[in-house]
Each structure stands twice: as C-alpha cells, then as structure tokens.
Amino acid sequence: MIDSNKRLLNKKLWQHYQDTEFLFTQTLSSQLSFAIITAHNPRGQILTSCQNRLLDRQLLRSIEQFNRPYRAVVGASRDRSHMEKSWAVAIDKLSAAHLGLKFKQNAIYFIDNNQLALVPCLFSQAEQQEELIIGDFSQRVNLVSELPDFDY
User: What InterPro entries does this protein map onto (predicted)?
Assistant: First the structure.
C-alpha cells in the first residue's frame, strides 16, 4: 500500500514539474542551451527555508566549479503557491543530470533551441520516467523586476 501511495505521489510530482513556469529578471537568447537546476526540497520533500538556503549555497559552489555562465531563476507553480530558487547554468545535459543526482533532485530541466525538456534524475531510477519534451521554453518564462527572497 505504501509503495502504491508513493508511486501515486511521484506521478503527481512529475505532472507538477511539467507545469512549472520560470521567473527571470532578464531575457535569455532562444539560441542558448542550458540547464535549470535547484537544490531545494530534495526527493520532493519540503524542507525549511534555512535547510534550502544551505543546499542552495552548496549547489552554487558546485556550479561555480564548471566555470560557465549561470544566472539565478525561480521555478514556480502557475498559481505561485510553490516556488523554488534555481539556477540556469550553461552546461551540457549529462553534467546537469549528474548535478541533479548529487543534490537528490527528482528531475532537472534542460533547454536547447528554446525547447524545454524535463529530464529525470532520481525518477529515472525509481519511476522509470523518461525525458519529456514539454514545449517552447519562452512560453514558460515570466520576466520580473526582482526574484523572491525566500526568507534569506
């Protein structure tokens, strides 16, 4: 029973990931390839803002080691009831998936020529999910004057 409940919860999470929108403070070229990765709420389990802040700092240190351009972004539900600080990073998909695994993420996003893909990390192992092309990335981007501060 617990296993089937977990599967149902993971299926709902996978659907929520497909509905995510992204908050940016600047536009990005539609020709870029990059990943969007968060360290918030590993395995889909909600943590405190303090715990998420610590994980975010660790992720940023890992991102800086790539020596590639990066930018802060927020992944959000359409109604903005759930938001996670994330990073847009100009790295390849495989490196991004490894980083997602390192930070115990169910999935990461990868954008190539304005096509948004949901790439499973932990879900590829546990749920046998496959990469899913969601559609035009630009349709999911909302420009904002500043990003939420997440109680930092």
Answer: DUF3293 (IPR021710)
Please report which confidence band the pLDDT of residue 126 belongs to, taking 50, 70 and 90 as the band edges.
low
Position 22, amino acid = F
Please report how the helices 49-64 and 93-102 are oriented relative to each other, as an axis angle in degrees rounded to 10: 140
Calculate mean pLDDT across residues 26-43.
93
Which residue is it, tokens 């501060």? 149
* Contact (CB, 8 A) for 38 and 51: no
Give per-residue pLDDT as tens, 81-116: 999 999 999 999 999 999 999 999 999 999 999 999
> 141-143 and 21-24 as β-strands: parallel, antiparallel, unpaired?
parallel
97 domain-assigned = yes
64 within a domain of the structure (yes/no) = yes
Q: Looking at the 3D structure of the chain, how many domains does it have? A: 1
| Strand residues in 59-114 grouped as ranges (E) | 70-76, 83-89, 107-112
* Domain that includes residue 106, residue range: 2-143
